[in-house]
């Protein structure tokens, strides 16, 4: 007879004692269970003890998390969290440096447990750790352990970062600003200051005033990847906390100090692979830099601005007036105005007054900036563009000004100018760090590409929107390749001609549609079950290999990773925390387990509890697209295991695999694409012998029956 549902068979171990194999009744109070365990080992005062998970982070068992105990779990009997906190806090006050070091090591091991953290915080443990950090008697391992333990306790959110004192923050700043410092201390100090900057505007201003940008540049130039990453994290946090004017001043200073060149040569093209954290911070730096263009993008042209009128006149003069000559020599004012209006129309402005074309926002003044930049930095290409189109028939000319306005809008959309930074994205462009004025340089390439595509399409004014769609596709496809330099981008995008775009569209359409002949459709339907089984097998194998997931909090992007995989027998999900930079753990070493049989449902997107907690802001849109959860039974309550997939592909693989485990259809876009690809390949293999043989839309008709069946053998006649 099987035990009741709320009874689990577990092992409890204690140092220097024979382990106990017990049946734990989840309905029995935890204090009663502890007393029975202690009585079996003849231990008195059971209130002085507590149960912990034996593996992983050795979390304490409480009434809130006891439902996580499953059949086969191994627990250990240890000192109660309140007594352990008291003991370790006493060790921090010991006169022996070795005792303080051991206490701090134990602190770091237990600080991630919420139960232990609450006990420490309630006994002023943060203040005692803060004293160790502020005193700074030992700048080596003791200080590093103190900083790590302090950050682990603060991460629980029990105490706000805003409660930190100014002297404490200044002391941590001093560790960042020191020249000779233990290599393990400065990354932790930088990480702590990043948390302070992101969580407290007031203390963030203090950090900004106390940590010189030059100091962060020094840390970035140290060939220590962890230190570089933390320095970049603090730098992007300071930039995010600054107002637009301060941010522009800071970025201008960083660019003057050759930060862009250093990032491009020594970080992007470093021998060591680029970590996920650094990729995210480079994305944020790129987004913040491009975000400086938003003000110009949202500002319409002012017809009364002398500077802007002069820029428009400079555009006209650069195209139509030879150097040293001036329009209006010997002409009346009316004649001069008439000629100017005509030349502005030749430039591609829709109105004789060009200011009216630039009143639209976006792109506002950003379009004018791009046109002026192109005329000054590529004068020959600018003149050739304008004069070449001026000599064409009216209906075939490519309007420079209109094209510039629309291309600027297009580039802002492709590069997400003005959009808030994502918390998880890593999609930065190496080309951005290879070139000063990258946006304007990209415009110069794009406007020449537009003129080239216009000629290839033999377009007229009515085809303007079609040309723009092709140019969008050319730019988007080339940007997706992540070229490492502007020259490489120019080469690739110019190789993507209009004919090549049509070929790619046709190829993709054939891959998507396949043939629609009824016999082929019937064959595809017969092949689908077998191929869906193959896809299901691949998804489960991928889950068995496991994936590293990143923990995301409502406050900021986290450094912590956790690993999850499916057991080889496909019956248990195994997971646990891991350190960044280490090899993926083996399934046997993972501390947590979730039986597949206990899973109720798979949730995705906005239905996930960790997405609902974060709200619905624009910055959470990408988070919502990568989020999924599994709900499972934990005692009588419903619990959730929450995931944030590292990429859209991983999201599809995991949701498909979990759906397959639950017996639900695999309905992701990736499954549809994989099935289509496999069906196309299998169909072509089956039809190899019918190559160049037309397949009719309908099967040939069945001929009518013969007039008689005399040719048939009559089986009823017996032979003699």
Model description:
This protein is of the alpha+beta class and 720 residues long. The chain has four domains: 7-79, Phosphatidylinositol 3-kinase Catalytic Subunit, Chain A, domain 1 (Ubiquitin-like (UB roll)), CATH 3.10.20.90; 91-289, Leucine-rich Repeat Variant, CATH 1.25.10.10; 298-319 and 338-508, no CATH class; 533-674, Pleckstrin-homology domain (PH domain)/Phosphotyrosine-binding domain (PTB) (PH-domain like, Roll), CATH 2.30.29. The protein is built from 29 helices and eleven strands. It has helices at residues 30-40, 81-92, 97-110, 114-122, 125-135, 141-154, 166-177, 185-199, 201-210, 213-220, 225-241, 244-256, 259-268, 276-291, 294-297, 306-320, 333-346, 365-377, 379-390, 400-414, 438-457, 464-480, 486-495, 498-513, 518-545, 609-612, 621-626, 648-661, 669-686, and strands at residues 7-13, 20-25, 49-53, 74-79, 547-552, 557-566, 572-578, 592-595, 599-604, 627-634, 637-644. The strands form three sheets. It has a four-stranded mixed sheet with strand order 2-1-4-3. A four-stranded antiparallel sheet has the order 5-6-7-8. Strands 9-10-11 form a three-stranded antiparallel sheet. A hairpin with a 4-residue loop joins β5 (547-552) and β6. The longest helix has 28 residues, at 518-545. It is flat and about 110 Å long. It starts with 6 loop residues before the first strand and ends in a 34-residue tail after the last helix.
């Amino acid at each position: 007879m099987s035990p009741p549902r709320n009874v689990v068979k577990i092992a409890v171990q204690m140092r220097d004692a024979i382990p106990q194999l017990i049946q734990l009744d989840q309905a029995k109070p935890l204090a009663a269970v502890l007393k029975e365990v202690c009585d079996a080992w003849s231990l008195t005062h059971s209130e002085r003890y507590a149960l912990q998970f034996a593996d992983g982070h050795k979390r304490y068992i409480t009434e809130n998390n006891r439902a996580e105990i499953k059949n086969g779990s191994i627990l250990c009997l240890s000192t109660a969290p309140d007594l352990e906190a008291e003991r370790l806090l006493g060790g921090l006050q010991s006169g022996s440096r070795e005792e303080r070091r051991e206490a701090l090591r134990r602190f770091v091991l237990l600080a991630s447990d919420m139960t232990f953290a609450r006990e420490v915080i309630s006994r002023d443990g943060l203040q005692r750790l803060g004293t160790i950090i502020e005193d700074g008697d030992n700048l080596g391992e003791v200080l590093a352990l103190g900083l790590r333990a302090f950050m682990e306790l603060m991460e629980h959110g029990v105490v706000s970062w805003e409660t930190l004192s100014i002297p404490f923050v200044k002391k941590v700043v001093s560790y960042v600003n020191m020249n000779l410092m233990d290599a393990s201390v400065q990354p932790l100090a930088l990480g702590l200051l990043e948390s302070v900057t992101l969580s407290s505007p007031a203390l963030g201003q203090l950090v900004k005033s106390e940590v010189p940008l030059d100091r962060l540049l020094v840390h970035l130039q140290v060939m220590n990847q962890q230190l570089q990453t933390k320095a970049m994290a603090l730098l992007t946090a300071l930039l995010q906390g600054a107002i637009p004017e301060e941010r522009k001043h800071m970025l201008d200073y960083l660019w003057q100090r050759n930060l862009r060149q250093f990032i491009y040569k020594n970080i992007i093209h470093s021998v060591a692979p680029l970590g996920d954290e650094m990729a995210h911070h480079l994305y944020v730096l790129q987004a913040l830099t491009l975000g400086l263009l938003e003000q110009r993008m949202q500002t319409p042209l002012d017809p009364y601005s002398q500077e802007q009128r002069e820029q428009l006149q400079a555009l006209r003069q650069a195209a139509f007036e030879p150097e040293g000559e001036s329009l209006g020599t010997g002409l009346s004012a009316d004649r001069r105005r008439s000629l100017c209006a005509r030349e502005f129309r030749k430039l591609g402005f829709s109105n004789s007054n060009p200011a009216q074309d630039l009143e639209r926002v976006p792109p506002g003044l950003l379009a004018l900036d791009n046109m002026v930049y192109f005329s000054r930095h590529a004068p020959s290409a600018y003149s050739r563009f304008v004069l070449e189109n001026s000599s064409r028939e009216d209906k075939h000319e490519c309007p420079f000004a209109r094209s510039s306005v629309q291309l600027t809008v297009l580039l802002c959309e492709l590069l997400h100018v003005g959009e808030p930074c994502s918390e998880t994205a890593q999609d930065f462009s190496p080309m951005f760090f290879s070139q000063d004025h990258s946006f304007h340089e990209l415009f110069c390439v794009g406007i020449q590409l537009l003129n080239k595509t216009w000629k290839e399409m033999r377009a007229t004014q009515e085809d303007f929107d079609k040309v723009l769609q092709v140019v969008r596709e050319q730019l988007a496809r080339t940007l997706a390749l992540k070229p490492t330099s502007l020259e490489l981008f120019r080469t690739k995008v110019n190789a993507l001609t209009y004919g090549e775009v049509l070929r790619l569209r046709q190829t993709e359409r054939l891959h998507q549609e396949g043939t629609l002949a009824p016999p082929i459709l019937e064959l595809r339907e017969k092949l689908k079950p077998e191929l869906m089984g193959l896809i299901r097998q691949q998804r489960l194998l991928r889950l068995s290999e496991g994936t590293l997931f990143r923990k995301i909090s409502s406050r900021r992007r986290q450094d912590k990773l956790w690993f999850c995989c499916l057991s080889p027998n496909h019956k248990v999900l195994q997971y646990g925390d891991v350190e960044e930079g280490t090899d993926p753990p083996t399934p046997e070493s993972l501390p947590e387990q979730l039986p597949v049989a206990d899973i109720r449902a798979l949730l995705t997107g906005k239905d996930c509890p960790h997405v609902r907690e974060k709200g619905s802001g624009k910055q959470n849109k990408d988070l919502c697209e990568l989020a999924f959860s599994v709900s499972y039974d934990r005692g009588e309550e419903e619990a959730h295991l929450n995931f944030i997939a590292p990429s859209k592909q991983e999201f599809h693989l995991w949701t498909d695999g979990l759906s397959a485990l639950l017996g639900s259809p695999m309905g992701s876009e990736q499954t549809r694409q994989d099935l289509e690809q496999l069906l196309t390949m299998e169909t072509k293999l089956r039809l190899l012998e019918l190559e160049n043989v037309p397949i009719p839309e309908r099967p040939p008709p069945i001929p009518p029956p013969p007039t008689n069946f005399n040719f048939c053998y009559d089986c009823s006649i017996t032979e003699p």
